[in-house]
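Please, structure for the following, as tokens.
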Amino acid sequence: MESIKQYASAAYESVAELTNNYAGGMAAPKAPVVMTLMDWMKVLLGLGVSVSLVFGVLFWTTKKDKSLQTHLLTPVNFWFVLSGVIHIWIEGSFVFRREQSFLKPGLDFYASGDFRYGSPMEAGTAAMEAITAIFDGPMCFAIAYAVTHQKSWRHPLQLVLCTCHIYGLVWFVLHPLFTKEGWHGHLSSDPFLFWFLVVGMNAPWALLPPYLFFQSWKALVFGEEAEEGVKKGGNVGKKKSAKAEPSMPATPATPASEGRPRRRRL
């Protein structure tokens, strides 16, 4: 029994040490930016209005064919629209309008949890966020349109976007390992800032993109197999019809002399 307690205690200390190192460990915590109620309202209302505007545009594109509206308000579409708004508006503000954005208190609050998002931003983080805002954001809206209108190019583009999301998250997690400061030099040791901002706000991109990647992979493979099956079935049908068709007997050639009148022999 004593050995089990010692083993459990050692395991707990190992997990605690790993968590502390990841969350900041010995790094001195930076004073977090205080978010007022008005600051939170700006972020939440901005997200709500932006998402509603995008859905309004998508709804307008379905006016000619109202049957498409059944594909509009779906969880997958909501994820892509919300993700696109976050990429373009919030992440774009980090890179292109940091000081002028009315979101500045919220941006500074996030930076108090992840020091890479400070002002000025860490160079690699700024480059990654610029790519995300310019390319990933519009791709999210394009896929939402494709889902609504049942476009054939939806899954190829979704596969590309999910690959970008997964790559970005892996980069986000591993990037500190390749710096001199390590994790503890880039992430806050404050439990709330670490778990709520750094982990919690990035967790959706660890769950949904892999699922949607598999969804598109499965759809593309199924479509390819179905197309191959149709081709093989068509070839088999042609061979069977060729075997079943009776061959027509060749018509004997009529000699040229048969058409001429015969001479009587004397």
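Residues 14-29 have pLDDT under 50 and may be disordered. Residues 252 and 258 are 13 Å apart (CA to CA).
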